[in-house]
Amino acid sequence: MTESEDIDEGLAAPVWAVFGDLMTSLLGAFVLVLLGVLVTQIDLVNSLQSEIEKRRIEEQRRMALERALAIPLASGRVTLEHGKIGISGSVLFALGSDELRPEGRQLLQTLVQPLRVYLGERKELLMVSGFTDDRGVQRGNRRYEDNLELSAQRALTVTRALIEEGMPSSQVFAAAFGAEQPVASNGTEQGRAQNRRVEMAPVPRTAAKP
To answer: Is 138's pLDDT higher than 80?
Structure first.
């Protein structure tokens, strides 16, 4: 073997060694990327399955609540949207008042039995929430400092009425939001009337306690 051939062979060996190390590094990087993609896909699939299961349970709850409240819903005085039972404030109370109208009490009476069954089957609680429009409390009404206080008293009035009509006190509690969380514009009388409302929503017992 000539001296030039020895030199060529000596140069070729390091080149092939570097090429082999490079390919090994690339292969390792490819494997890591592939593993990362697979882990991400698995996480996405699990998240998707979890979301599908959550929506399935929510749909079952909604359908069960619709069945339980079929008669009150058919009357048109009660609405059910996103698991919340809505009752217009004008059905329950006169403007600016927390005294329950007779027809309002009759309506609440029709809700007690189906709600008791529904809550009992799922071991849930009923949250009664009071809402108002954004108009300030009338000056002549000195019983309330503001809309939050008025909405709180209305929620308590409905809660007490439900208990008096047979709802176990351990299954229901009151909450107040005042003019927060409007469902319509307060720029019109129609919108303000929609915002003056009481909502009832079944909630898990764990969610009811801070």
So the answer is: no
